[in-house]
Fold:
Amino acid sequence: MQHYLAAWETGKTMLVCIAKITCVRMYRLIEFYWQERIKELTTKKSEVTDEQENIYLTRQINWMRETRTAVVVSEEQDKESLAIFDLLKKPALGQAEIKQIRAVAHDLLEKLKAEKLRIDQWRDKEASRAAVWTAIHDFLYNSATGLPENSYSEDDVRIKTDDVFRHVFQVYPTLPSPYYEPVAVV
Structure:
Protein backbone atom coordinates (compact mmCIF):
# COMPACT_ATOMS: atom_id res chain seq x y z
CA MET A 1 0.00 0.00 0.00
CA GLN A 2 2.91 2.35 0.67
CA HIS A 3 3.92 2.47 -2.99
CA TYR A 4 0.40 3.54 -3.94
CA LEU A 5 0.29 6.25 -1.30
CA ALA A 6 3.52 7.68 -2.64
CA ALA A 7 1.92 8.17 -6.04
CA TRP A 8 -1.49 9.25 -4.77
CA GLU A 9 -2.04 11.94 -7.39
CA THR A 10 -1.58 9.64 -10.38
CA GLY A 11 -4.79 7.61 -10.47
CA LYS A 12 -6.19 4.17 -9.76
CA THR A 13 -4.76 0.90 -8.55
CA MET A 14 -6.08 -2.62 -8.55
CA LEU A 15 -5.41 -5.81 -6.64
CA VAL A 16 -6.41 -9.00 -8.42
CA CYS A 17 -6.91 -12.21 -6.45
CA ILE A 18 -7.81 -15.67 -7.60
CA ALA A 19 -9.66 -16.71 -4.45
CA LYS A 20 -12.60 -14.59 -3.32
CA ILE A 21 -11.77 -15.07 0.35
CA THR A 22 -8.25 -13.76 -0.28
CA CYS A 23 -9.70 -10.63 -1.89
CA VAL A 24 -11.97 -10.01 1.08
CA ARG A 25 -9.11 -10.51 3.55
CA MET A 26 -6.83 -8.19 1.56
CA TYR A 27 -9.62 -5.62 1.34
CA ARG A 28 -9.94 -5.62 5.13
CA LEU A 29 -6.17 -5.23 5.54
CA ILE A 30 -6.04 -2.41 3.02
CA GLU A 31 -8.93 -0.62 4.73
CA PHE A 32 -7.25 -0.97 8.12
CA TYR A 33 -3.89 0.39 6.93
CA TRP A 34 -5.61 3.07 4.88
CA GLN A 35 -7.31 4.44 8.01
CA GLU A 36 -4.05 4.15 9.95
CA ARG A 37 -2.29 6.20 7.30
CA ILE A 38 -4.99 8.90 7.47
CA LYS A 39 -4.39 9.10 11.24
CA GLU A 40 -0.61 9.37 10.70
CA LEU A 41 -1.01 12.14 8.14
CA THR A 42 -3.47 14.00 10.36
CA THR A 43 -0.99 13.87 13.24
CA LYS A 44 1.84 14.97 10.96
CA LYS A 45 -0.30 17.83 9.63
CA SER A 46 -0.92 19.15 13.13
CA GLU A 47 2.86 19.30 13.69
CA VAL A 48 3.79 20.97 10.36
CA THR A 49 4.64 24.68 10.35
CA ASP A 50 5.28 25.12 6.62
CA GLU A 51 2.12 26.37 4.84
CA GLN A 52 2.87 24.54 1.55
CA GLU A 53 3.39 21.26 3.42
CA ASN A 54 0.15 21.85 5.30
CA ILE A 55 -1.77 22.40 2.04
CA TYR A 56 -0.18 19.28 0.52
CA LEU A 57 -1.06 17.11 3.53
CA THR A 58 -4.61 18.51 3.61
CA ARG A 59 -5.09 17.59 -0.06
CA GLN A 60 -3.70 14.10 0.51
CA ILE A 61 -5.86 13.47 3.58
CA ASN A 62 -8.98 14.70 1.75
CA TRP A 63 -8.13 12.51 -1.23
CA MET A 64 -7.69 9.47 1.02
CA ARG A 65 -11.01 10.13 2.77
CA GLU A 66 -12.81 10.50 -0.57
CA THR A 67 -11.21 7.44 -2.15
CA ARG A 68 -13.54 4.47 -2.34
CA THR A 69 -12.33 0.93 -2.19
CA ALA A 70 -14.36 -2.13 -3.03
CA VAL A 71 -14.21 -5.83 -3.66
CA VAL A 72 -15.39 -6.53 -7.20
CA VAL A 73 -16.15 -10.12 -8.08
CA SER A 74 -16.22 -10.92 -11.77
CA GLU A 75 -18.68 -13.33 -13.25
CA GLU A 76 -17.70 -16.81 -12.31
CA GLN A 77 -17.37 -19.29 -15.09
CA ASP A 78 -17.08 -23.01 -14.70
CA LYS A 79 -14.09 -24.85 -16.15
CA GLU A 80 -16.11 -26.37 -18.98
CA SER A 81 -17.46 -23.03 -20.23
CA LEU A 82 -14.10 -21.39 -19.67
CA ALA A 83 -12.44 -23.90 -22.00
CA ILE A 84 -14.95 -23.02 -24.75
CA PHE A 85 -14.49 -19.30 -24.03
CA ASP A 86 -10.72 -19.65 -24.41
CA LEU A 87 -11.25 -21.28 -27.82
CA LEU A 88 -13.65 -18.57 -28.97
CA LYS A 89 -11.89 -15.42 -27.84
CA LYS A 90 -9.37 -13.57 -29.93
CA PRO A 91 -7.06 -10.61 -29.28
CA ALA A 92 -8.19 -6.98 -29.19
CA LEU A 93 -11.79 -7.52 -28.11
CA GLY A 94 -13.66 -4.93 -26.07
CA GLN A 95 -15.28 -5.62 -22.71
CA ALA A 96 -18.78 -5.90 -24.20
CA GLU A 97 -17.56 -8.44 -26.77
CA ILE A 98 -15.76 -10.46 -24.10
CA LYS A 99 -18.92 -10.53 -22.01
CA GLN A 100 -20.91 -11.65 -25.04
CA ILE A 101 -18.41 -14.42 -25.81
CA ARG A 102 -18.56 -15.66 -22.20
CA ALA A 103 -22.33 -15.95 -22.56
CA VAL A 104 -21.97 -17.63 -25.97
CA ALA A 105 -19.54 -20.19 -24.51
CA HIS A 106 -21.87 -20.99 -21.63
CA ASP A 107 -25.05 -21.13 -23.73
CA LEU A 108 -23.45 -23.17 -26.52
CA LEU A 109 -22.16 -25.76 -24.09
CA GLU A 110 -25.52 -25.98 -22.33
CA LYS A 111 -27.30 -26.46 -25.67
CA LEU A 112 -24.88 -29.17 -26.78
CA LYS A 113 -25.14 -30.99 -23.46
CA ALA A 114 -28.93 -30.80 -23.52
CA GLU A 115 -29.26 -32.07 -27.08
CA LYS A 116 -26.50 -33.34 -29.38
CA LEU A 117 -24.09 -34.76 -26.81
CA ARG A 118 -26.84 -36.92 -25.30
CA ILE A 119 -26.79 -39.17 -28.38
CA ASP A 120 -25.29 -42.50 -27.37
CA GLN A 121 -21.76 -42.88 -28.80
CA TRP A 122 -22.19 -39.74 -30.89
CA ARG A 123 -18.50 -39.72 -31.81
CA ASP A 124 -18.75 -43.09 -33.62
CA LYS A 125 -21.48 -42.05 -36.07
CA GLU A 126 -20.71 -39.75 -38.98
CA ALA A 127 -24.23 -38.29 -39.00
CA SER A 128 -24.02 -37.52 -35.27
CA ARG A 129 -20.60 -35.89 -35.62
CA ALA A 130 -21.91 -33.78 -38.50
CA ALA A 131 -24.96 -32.79 -36.44
CA VAL A 132 -22.72 -31.63 -33.57
CA TRP A 133 -20.46 -29.63 -35.92
CA THR A 134 -23.50 -28.04 -37.58
CA ALA A 135 -25.09 -27.21 -34.21
CA ILE A 136 -21.87 -25.47 -33.12
CA HIS A 137 -21.53 -23.58 -36.39
CA ASP A 138 -25.17 -22.49 -36.52
CA PHE A 139 -25.04 -21.33 -32.90
CA LEU A 140 -21.83 -19.31 -33.42
CA TYR A 141 -23.00 -17.84 -36.74
CA ASN A 142 -26.48 -16.87 -35.51
CA SER A 143 -26.72 -13.11 -34.92
CA ALA A 144 -28.96 -13.65 -31.88
CA THR A 145 -26.89 -16.32 -30.10
CA GLY A 146 -23.45 -16.24 -31.65
CA LEU A 147 -20.17 -14.42 -31.85
CA PRO A 148 -20.01 -10.62 -32.29
CA GLU A 149 -20.60 -10.03 -36.00
CA ASN A 150 -18.31 -6.99 -36.19
CA SER A 151 -15.34 -8.92 -34.81
CA TYR A 152 -15.72 -12.36 -36.42
CA SER A 153 -15.77 -12.99 -40.16
CA GLU A 154 -17.38 -16.04 -41.75
CA ASP A 155 -13.91 -17.63 -41.90
CA ASP A 156 -13.38 -16.86 -38.20
CA VAL A 157 -16.68 -18.57 -37.35
CA ARG A 158 -15.70 -21.64 -39.37
CA ILE A 159 -12.28 -21.80 -37.68
CA LYS A 160 -13.81 -21.35 -34.22
CA THR A 161 -16.40 -24.02 -35.06
CA ASP A 162 -13.60 -26.44 -35.95
CA ASP A 163 -11.72 -25.57 -32.74
CA VAL A 164 -14.77 -26.06 -30.53
CA PHE A 165 -15.76 -29.26 -32.33
CA ARG A 166 -12.27 -30.76 -31.81
CA HIS A 167 -12.45 -29.87 -28.13
CA VAL A 168 -15.95 -31.29 -27.70
CA PHE A 169 -14.99 -34.44 -29.61
CA GLN A 170 -12.04 -35.03 -27.32
CA VAL A 171 -13.56 -34.04 -23.99
CA TYR A 172 -17.17 -35.28 -24.30
CA PRO A 173 -17.18 -38.95 -25.24
CA THR A 174 -19.99 -39.24 -22.69
CA LEU A 175 -22.01 -36.99 -20.41
CA PRO A 176 -20.90 -35.94 -17.92
CA SER A 177 -17.44 -35.44 -19.34
CA PRO A 178 -14.85 -37.67 -17.69
CA TYR A 179 -12.35 -34.81 -18.08
CA TYR A 180 -14.29 -32.51 -15.77
CA GLU A 181 -15.46 -35.03 -13.21
CA PRO A 182 -13.93 -34.63 -9.76
CA VAL A 183 -11.26 -37.21 -9.08
CA ALA A 184 -11.41 -39.11 -5.80
CA VAL A 185 -8.09 -39.41 -4.05
CA VAL A 186 -7.76 -42.64 -2.11
